[in-house]
Amino acid sequence: MQSTPPEHASPGRPRSEAARVAVLHAVDDLLVEQGYAAMTMKGIAERAGVGRQTVYRWWSTKAEILLEASTSDAAHELATEPQARPADDLTAFLEALTCFLTTSPAGLAYRALLGEAQHDSAVRDLVRTANLLGTAAQAVLARVSPHTAHMPPAPLAAAQLTGPVLAVILETGSPLSSPLLTDHAEILVRAWTAKPTPRPAAAVRPGIA
Questions:
Q1: What is the pTM of this model?
Q2: Inter-CA distances, 68 with 90, 139, 155, 205, Å
Q3: Could you tell me if 39 and 31 are in contact, meaning their C-beta atoms sit under 8 angstroms apart?
Q4: Cα–Cα distance, 134 to 55 (Å, whole number)
Q5: What string of H, E and C letters represents the secondary structure of 152-177?
Q6: What is the full DSSP assignment across 89-112?
Q7: What are the residue ranges in the chain where pLDDT is below 50?
Q8: What is the reported pLDDT for 15?
Q9: Burial zone of 102 (CB within 10 Å; 0-12 exposed, 13-18 middle, 19+ buried)
Q10: How many C-beta atoms lie closer than 10 Å to residue 129's C-beta?
Q11: Angle ∠(66,160,108) on CA atoms, nearest 5
């Protein structure tokens, strides 16, 4: 768990960094041991060795704690070094993303939040606002953009890049292989480099003005 505090901390009394880190470690541990549904704010506070009032002063729900834990680590774990080729740059990010989603406690927390978001609108709003994967992909997309004249707008490009990796892991529990990640990156670069084919004019059916 990274100890760098988030850019936008909750208003109120300044945080104790040691207490904050203890809470973020606690929520990771309890997620693995108990699962999201069984976790409570009381249990998180007890595991972290802080008072419940301390936890509630900084976070309103366990989902907020999990999201902060995920976002804090994702910024570090999904940062990749520039590569010589655009496709290699994308591949390096995809490999980091796969590792994050399958082996990192922060990635596990993010997956738990995605599951909870399917039936809890408050969690869904948190996840949507954070845009964790889209934000993490911005750096590599910015590096690749000058070499891919027809890359779509950033939200769509990020979805095209991360979507298949996330979908396969969520649906099957297993990641795409390294060769498939490489293929995915190469396909994206080709698609974003090639000039789009114009859409054919819509045919007018007989009798329809």
A1: 0.82
A2: 25, 20, 22, 54
A3: yes
A4: 28
A5: CCHHHHHHHHHHHHHHHHHHHCCCCC
A6: HHHHHHHHHHHHHHH-HHHHHHHH
A7: 3-12
A8: 59
A9: middle
A10: 9
A11: 20
